[in-house]
UniProtKB/TrEMBL annotation:
SUPFAM superfamilies: UDP-Glycosyltransferase/glycogen phosphorylase (SSF53756). The lineage of its organism: Bacteria, Pseudomonadati, Bacteroidota, Flavobacteriia, Flavobacteriales. It holds the Pfam family Glycos_transf_1. Keywords: Membrane, Transmembrane, Transmembrane helix. The chain crosses the membrane at residues 283-303, 315-335. This is Glycosyl transferase family 1 domain-containing protein. It comes from the Bacteria. The keyword Transmembrane helix applies.
């Protein structure tokens, strides 16, 4: 008997990470699983889950089990092939343990290209989320990268073990990929936003952090090179003080080791210029991010990686705040489609400084459109996300 679209009875949802959106996605699917009592769900997550699960509620149910693995279950190695092998080996272990019929991977590409080889004689049907869309980088990729990308997608289309391949936040790519690889496995998956509810108590961050300026420019998430974090700081350093005297720049998130030294050197220069900058170098709670978004004028996201989307768009849209992004790739396409903010040609300090020099915060507020943001949010609900996968 097929119930709720399933002929299978046991579903395993597997994720190696619990950082950022990973925890959110697991929770969305957990809540949806509560509604499907006739199906057994097994969630396998990193043991660090216990340190952050308080951020959401997890009602107990007879049809849901949560299993943990330790970081030590994945041997450390710098060899990409071995890393992939160990991940698949761990995955296979839990598939056998739970006797799963259906496997859902929150991050599919981490297990490629070895994944189909581990399940070549298995009846398990595999689905998973794809974040990085190779179509956006194919033109600029070296030959080896092109061969690697094409090979993985040929595997997706060839191996019957792959059931559904969810392309995150890109409505066009699934159609192109299905046509290119003669399949119907590629499906659009909206990146969901978490709506505000009565349980969310926004913090008075202006008072807590002593912010006196009328405007806040926010940059949050994992602060890394690919996010344009250093370029933003460099642009602040280059911009005349009188142009940004009414603005406080806020950086929320753990600073990556690879940029920490450069970050602190630039920060010291900016502080010597007496420009307004606040840095919160730590894992930031959902509530703190929301509280700063509520007070911000614009969210800075000049990401260098143009092959995938970002949940930052959801946070900004929730409060009707425009974003500043790069005029290329998937994020650019979304920003243009829903008119979510401003675009610059590249992630370069001089272009960011030009924006700070010539586009005033008053102009940003004047040009903001709540109607466009509402349309974006309506198309990116948790319900659409969860029902697409389950």
């Amino acid at each position: 008997m097929i119930k709720n679209g399933y002929s299978n009875k046991t579903v395993l949802i597997f994720d190696l990470s619990i950082d950022g959106h990973h925890l959110e996605y697991i929770h969305h699917l957990y809540i949806e699983a509560l509604k499907k009592r006739e199906i057994n769900f097994h969630f396998v997550v990193n043991s660090n889950f216990t340190k952050v699960n308080h951020l959401f509620e997890w009602p107990k149910a007879e049809n849901i089990n949560i299993y943990f693995f330790q970081n030590t279950d994945l041997p450390e190695t710098n060899n990409a092939f071995l890393k992939c092998y160990y991940k698949n080996k761990l995955l296979k272990k839990f598939v056998k343990k739970t006797n799963a019929d259906k496997l859902i991977l929150i991050s599919l590409m981490e297990f490629m290209p070895l994944l189909p080889l581990f399940f070549i004689n298995s009846k398990v049907k595999i689905s998973g989320i794809i974040y990085l869309i190779y179509l956006y980088r194919y033109k600029f990729s070296i030959l080896f990268q092109k061969i690697s990308d094409i090979s993985k997608y040929l595997m997706f289309s060839f191996f019957s073990s792959f059931e559904k391949l969810y392309i995150l936040n890109d409505e066009v790519s699934p159609r192109i990929l299905n046509k290119k690889f003669h399949t119907s496995k590629f499906i659009f998956l909206p990146d969901p936003y978490i709506p505000l509810d009565n349980h969310v108590q926004l913090e008075p961050v202006r008072e807590q952090y002593g912010i006196k300026t009328p405007f806040i420019y926010l940059h949050f998430g994992a602060l890394e090179d690919r996010k344009g974090t250093i370029e933003i700081l460099d642009a602040i350093h280059r911009t005349p003080s009188e142009k940004i005297e009414k603005i406080t720049f806020v950086f929320l998130g753990k600073i990556g080791k690879s940029i920490k030294k450069d970050f602190m050197e630039l920060l010291n220069k900016i502080e010597s210029q007496k420009k307004n900058v606040i840095v919160k170098d730590q894992f930031c709670s959902y509530n703190l991010i929301l509280s700063f978004c509520n007070e911000s004028t614009i969210v800075l996201m000049p990401y260098k990686d143009q092959n995938q989307s970002s949940g930052v768009l959801n946070y900004a849209s929730l409060f009707g705040i425009p974003v500043l992004a790069i005029n290329n790739g998937l994020i650019c396409k979304i920003v243009k489609r829903y008119r979510l903010g401003y675009l610059i040609d590249a992630c370069k300090p001089n272009l960011l400084a030009d924006f700070f020099n010539h586009i005033s915060p008053e102009e940003i507020i004047k040009n903001s459109s709540k109607q466009n943001v509402k349309l974006f949010l309506n198309n990116h609900t948790i319900e659409k996300f969860s029902k697409t996968i389950l």
